[in-house]
Specification:
Elements (H helix, E strand, L loop, with lengths): L5 E2 L4 E6 L4 E7 L4 E4 L5 H15 L3 E5 L5 H4 L9 E5 L9 E3 L2 E5 L4 E5 L11 E4 L4 E5 L19 H9 L7 E4 L5 E2 H23 L4 H4 L9 H17 L12
Parallel strand pairs: 4-5, 5-6, 6-7, 11-12
Antiparallel strand pairs: 1-2, 2-3, 3-4, 8-9, 9-10, 10-11, 12-13
Length: 254
């Protein structure tokens, strides 16, 4: 497997691995380098690490995991000799170091900040902010070229708030690396944040109007595909039901 590392900045690179076009990040400091996510299998992980070591010119010492879906973490088993970092609720793989809310890694004149703002795409998403490079690795909290994927463990109500955690520090030149797809700008991130927020907000409005789950997909215009809505709308209805928000039966007029 030959990997092409595309520069995001002079010190930040991205390559994409198949079969799920997962973005793998490489962050290069003066002293050390760090990978973001690991690919689909131990064999792919080993190839990614070897390629990253050849590209970086400094030791690749760390790997940060954005969440535990297999296409992002299964390569870790093939990455020997690195310190793996993930949120404490990531239980699918063995990691070296975990954290609760925030953790920083100094790679030598380059600071990497790993941040957790609560449940979003999953219950343990990590956003990776590089303040000196003005780059954010968003994992699957953002997706380009396809709809964001809804996980049972995530939170549609809190997902926009998670994105706000870094959007508040972003500016017009901030680059966002999604879990899949092309690097995007702040405007793209704001738009997708609003679209994700619409799922929960619009669902709540429909429920107050008496719309039942089976009718919700055709009750209004949605920014996502029917396949995505088939997963997202039951999730939104379940979250709202947990808050006591359910469609009311209307009595027939006499």
């Amino acid at each position: 497997m030959t990997l092409d590392w595309t520069p995001v900045t002079d010190r930040v690179f991205v390559t994409t691995v198949q079969p799920h076009r997962v973005n793998i990040g490489l962050v290069v400091g003066d002293r050390e380098a760090l990978l973001v996510d690991t690919g689909n299998s131990p064999e792919q992980g080993a190839e990614i690490l070897a390629s990253a070591r050849a590209k970086a010119g400094v030791p690749v010492t760390h790997v940060l995991l954005t969440h535990d879906h297999h296409d992002h973490v299964n390569g870790l088993a093939g990455m020997e000799g690195v310190t793996s970092i993930a949120h404490e609720d990531l239980a699918a793989v063995e990691v070296t170091r975990t954290f609760s809310m925030a953790l920083a890694v100094d790679l030598g004149n380059l600071r990497v900040e790993a941040l957790h703002f609560g449940a979003g795409h999953t219950d343990h998403d990590v956003m990776i902010y590089l303040p000196g490079e003005n780059v954010v690795f968003a994992g699957d909290l953002l997706e380009e070229g396809a709809d964001p994927q809804v996980d049972d463990r995530g939170s549609l109500s809190n997902w926009p708030t998670v994105l706000d955690g870094v959007l508040g520090a972003a500016n017009a030149t901030t680059k966002f690396v999604p879990g899949h797809g092309a690097v995007v700008d702040r405007d793209f991130a704001f738009i997708q944040r609003a679209e994700i927020g619409m799922i929960y907000g619009q669902t709540e409005m429909l429920i107050h109007q008496g719309t039942r789950l089976e009718d919700a997909a055709i009750a209004t215009e949605w920014p996502f595909s029917a396949e995505t809505l088939a997963v997202a709308l039951p999730k939104a209805y379940a979250e709202l039901k947990a808050r006591g928000v359910e469609p009311k039966r209307h009595l027939p007029l006499i």
